[in-house]
Amino acid sequence: MPIEDLTPAEKFIWKWRNRQLGDFGNTLINAMLQADIQNLENLRLGFPDEVEGFTSYRLIPGWWDELEKKMAVEPDEHLCKSCALSHLECIETGASYAKITECGQFSPKGGTA
């Protein structure tokens, strides 16, 4: 499934888990990690989709596993064998990739690099 087909909440968490958020998104995640219930609800006022994704990820058993299934990714399949980071989308073209054998060497879905 292309990332564009995810809900905004799913997309936010997918990008976070795959280290694709920018500085603001990472700062927002850090704020949510530190927030108590009241402050999390305050954050929800300005960022409803992001807080929905965060609370689903944290509180619903199997939510992340289901998202990985939806994206047709085996657990840890998308991690680079060299640097253990995710490189699911090409920064320049936005093309999505299924596996990486070494850092910077992508194996596109349905073909070879």
What does it look like?
The chain has 113 residues and is mostly helical. It has two domains: 1-72, no CATH class; 73-113, no CATH class. Helices cover 46% and strands 9% of the residues. The chain has helices at residues 8-17, 23-34, 37-46, 48-59, 63-70, and strands at residues 97-102, 105-108. The protein has a two-stranded antiparallel ribbon with strand order 1-2. Helix 3 (37-46) crosses helix 4 (48-59). It is globular, with a radius of gyration of 15 Å.
Quick rundown:
By secondary structure, the chain is mainly α. The chain has helices at 8-17, 23-34, 37-46, 48-59, 63-70; strands at 97-102, 105-108. It has two domains: 1-72, no CATH class; 73-113, no CATH class.
Features:
113 residues, mainly alpha, 2 strands, disordered C terminus
Radius of gyration (Å): 15 Å
Tally of separate domains: 2
How would a crystallographer describe the biggest sheet? Answer: 2 strands, antiparallel
Helix-strand topology string? HHHHHEE
The average pLDDT score comes to 76
Derived from helix and strand composition plus strand pairing, the structural class reads: mainly alpha
Would you count the extended β strands for me? Answer: 2
Strand content: 5-15%
What is the number of helical segments per DSSP (H or I, 4+ residues)?
A: 5
Order of strands, main sheet, comes to 1-2
| Shape type | globular
List low-confidence stretches.
89-93, 97-113
Helix content: 40-55%
Report the end-to-end length measured between terminal Cα atoms: 20 Å
